[in-house]
Please model this.
Amino acid sequence: MAEASTIYREYETITVLKPDIDDARIIEVAGRLRELVSEQGGKSIKFSNWGKKKLTFEVDKIQKGIFIHHLYVAPPKAITEYERSLKFLDDALLYQTIRLKDVSGIDAEQSEEDQLAMPVRENNRRDRDNRDRGGHEAKARKDEKVEAKPEANSESVAAAEPKVEPEAEKAETKATEE
Amino acid sequence: MGEQKDFSYLNGGGRRGSRRKVDRFLADKSLVIDYKDPSSLKHFLTERGKIVPRRISGLCAKHQRKVTRAIKRARNLGILPYVSTGN
Model:
């Protein structure tokens, strides 16, 4: 009786996590999902963190989410268990698994380095959610400048005063000498 | 007798203007339809977030199906909107 050969396919799962979780929790979730894939006879290729993004619709009254992308090779039966675990994960808001291609074996693709660190946004102009609405920050900066000016004036007055005292001291010393 | 009748009104209303658009994915083979890239798929959505029909987008049937599938996947993940207000 011939053994049935296991079919392996390459899948990618994108999971949207709650925006308030920290990096340690993301690494924990990634580790758990990686373990799950290997338990089911698969192999993780790459985990990447796309960072916090705004959702086009709110989920549980949450407007943003952390997107993580998992690329892996696994038999088809692993997907049921994978999605089941995501369903019970409290931090997961949305998830979707896409089948990419059939592969010959579990070692068809080489593992790549994970990128779980939160990406840094270079262009701050795109960070619209943290923009100063109503100009409060600009006004606060302006107030600081206005307060700093009188202090500068008082410093100049204070700097002028010591000049007077040495002269007075000199007059006193002359008087005593005489 | 001998008058020639004008049958131009039978030409489909005299459609003028837009010539046949080129399928951009056939013109440039390096372009990839990916549901993870909303910036490339936004061109195929109207202001209200609806998928542009093939007669407007100019895509061939195969690419229109791929684009539609990619848009629906992106919508599921909250990357593209189902309905937008058209701002």
Notes: The mean pLDDT of chain A is 78. Chain A touches chain B at residues 14, 16, 53, 55-57, 59, 65, 67, 69, 94, 96, 98 (CB under 8 Å).
